[in-house]
Amino acid sequence: MATLTPAPVRSRPAPAAPKNPGYPQGHEPVHNYLHEPGPGPEVTGFARFRAIAWEWMTTVDHKRIGLMYLASVSLAFAVGGFLALAVRLELFTQGETIMTADTYNQVFTMHGIVMVFLFIVPSIPASLGNFLLPIMIGAKDVAFPKLNLASFYIYGIGAVVALTGLAFGGVDTGWTFYTPYSKETVDGVLFMGLGVFIMGFSSILTGLNFIVTIHKMRAPGMTWNRMPLFLWSIYATSIVQILATPVIGITMLLLFLERVLQIGIFDPALGGDPVLFQHFFWFYSHPAVYIMILPAFGVVSELMGTFSRQRVYGYRAVALSSVAIALLGFLVWGHHMFTSGQSPVSSVIFSLITFLIGIPSGIKIFNWVWTMYKGSVWLQTPMLYALTFLFLFTIGGVTGIMVGALSVDIHLHDTYFVVAHFHYVMMGGTVMAMLGGLHYWWPKMTGKLYNETAGKVSALLVFLGFNMTFFIQFIMGSQGMPRRYYDYPDMPWLEPLHQISTVGSWVLGLGLMVVWANGMWSLWKGKPAPGNPWGGATLEWTAATTPPDHHNFHHTPLVTHGPYDYNAALYGASGDGMSGDGHAAPVPDVTVGVAQNERFIDDGTSQPDSLS
Amino acid sequence: MANPTTLTVDDPHAPEAPASGDHGHGGDGHHGELMLKGHDGQMHPAHLQHHFISAEQQFEASKLGMWLFLVTEVLLFGGMFVAYAIYRAWYPDLFQEASTQLDTLLGAFNTLVLLASSLTVAWAIRAAQTDNRKLLVGMLWLTVALAGGFMLVKYFEYTHKFELGIYPGKYFQLDEGTPTIAELTAGTAVLAPAAVIGEDGQQLDVTEGASGESPTGEAEQIAPGAVDMPEANPEVGAERSLEETENALAEATGHAADGEHEEGHGREGAIFSNPRAGIFFSIYYVMTGIHGLHIIIGMIAMGILAVKAQRGRYTSVYYTPVENVGLYWHIVDIIWIFLFPLMYLI
Q: What is the predicted ipTM?
């Protein structure tokens, strides 16, 4: 069991400066973005609170904006989660359990809208992406910091406008707003559609900001092939955000005008075509599922590398497969419409391209598995979530191929099989990766260590609860349980299965509560985190303090190695181990948290392929 | 040095430079550019934001951001162009009839106005690059004026249409007695000889030209079915059957194309007895409306630029906003270049 002691024999002598000379003056960990800029010590009491609140609300610091996004999407996730629990509870018994059929329609619609537009689309890119992207490329901030803050507020305004719809009768269309029903039902649709339109701008501006930042703001030495895979996935995501989101914008605008001015584009009674709405909608919403999942791929790549102490296998293949998925994702929207009256030829083509998407996804899965092979897998909480991701996403992906097959889809369309499939991908994929990423970067973001045991318990509960909730839904779906139905009077044999699923949702909810409590506990009583508790090799670990400076770095770092060259990053085999100003990088200090130090295992120095 | 914030780095060409440089190339403190001291103790150009390393980086980032924004604009309008293309393919006659209602002369005039404004905005950028402040401000205001002229013409076009009862969608005022599609599908209106009510009273069946296999459907769904799946439907006459149906509909209602409007206030043409007329004008109003909105946004942006330029905010070392608004203005022009022939000419 090796510890993080520098290996004695190196081709180059170790730099003369001591490995851990402390931090440059004014850049000690106490001077971090959480406190600075802030009011001076002379401001006290309520005035202090007000000054701090104002500082945060008007900040253009990408790290603070990332944290504000994190709080917002967590809130949205909690709201959507409780709605999901309500949906599951209603299905616990046949007939009315806790709500009427009308309420049920509204609850599952709100669950979908909140989870898709308020939570999962902005989840990883806007929170973790905002926080990490500039640090990972060695920049002080994103290219357009004010725009970044603006997109946060646009997101907030969009959310408020959407929720205003609740006061106008709510929405019962499902999150897809299919016409002509969405044209005829209550007026809440107006506000929901407008809210989605506004939130789309937020998504576009975030993506635009990220692309420009990645293109123009990389630190010296940060070549495209030295970018962490998380950045590649964020880059691919941003492409999709920019190219797809305007289409949902115009779609929602047309739906809005359709309701207000009766323009008739989607209304068959005026000569329009309701299926055109489906085409428009899925032209955004299918690429949007890649907005949701691609950042998760990036997070998992980081976790796999760091916790296997090994370079991510097939770096370029993993990086480019993200871009390939982003581009192919634009050509498959028709697979949502196999039963909507689409020509057989286009159905066949859409089905074929859907299968093709399996290839880059498969490349990623295989490469992650290969990364672990002969690595020193360190089963900390983030890695447990990454492994959960690997397991659940594979099931979700393979069942996706199943429903992408034409004949199978006719049978499974609009059943619980589809519900289970996309929950395996979205929750089993994105949410698991986000939880893993949150645990991984939590010490960097907050400067506090969470409780490892509680983290592991939560990972176990989430894994068990998730599978209990959703695996059974594959079975229910293949037996014919339709999605969005309030009741199942003709299928009484499904009742026990529904009950298992509902109980599973409680276990899942409990697991997520443990995650939440663990985080809150760590803020309150957690141990201070060391600079690099996991021995990561990307810039946020090797060149920034914990928590990072207001300006991220004392000086722009000079990048001399790839993102997964752990030896080079930590011991200076090829790099100089220095930040740009000649101070040693505040890196491999793992002395805080003794238990971790003891448990810290093989650093990979004995592996021939981990040295470049 | 006269100005304490002016820094001249050992540059032989930097004498007591005027407040705004004459032939500067950006961001190096030469040519009397205004410099400020950053938190790292070094001097930076005043317009350089702290998170950029150089003025070039800032300029390039801004410009790339603008280009990406323009991509989203193209996709936004792309959705509407798709809607246009689809309905044009379904109802070619309708689109031909309806476009005759648009005033080609005014449209062409507006096209020229916009093209001229593209010239003036490009000229403004050039003026900024050559530090010609007077020309810059003049050209910006001229662009605003041309855009205003465009909107004025648009206003007269719209009001004229409203007078004639040409509204989008449901509110399009058909000639007296013309049945709407809703009435036709509900079976409450008199039907054309080419079509009969299905047995349940809810369906229209096309008796001539429709293929035996094609399911009977509502009137408006015959067209999508026929055009959407040409491979699946070998019946070549399917598309024509739609036209025949439409013609028959018009005839059956007893409204010939002309002769009905003696008052002669402009409601001429078969379009006023076409129950689907609202579709074309929906697309027309939505597309030109959103385009007009972009013009207004551009006018506001250009007005702000002009005021700031008047105050000497833009010089040859810093004119990024002028460049970006210019780019935006060109995309607005280009969209009109596509709108004009699609709506007015064909």
A: 0.87
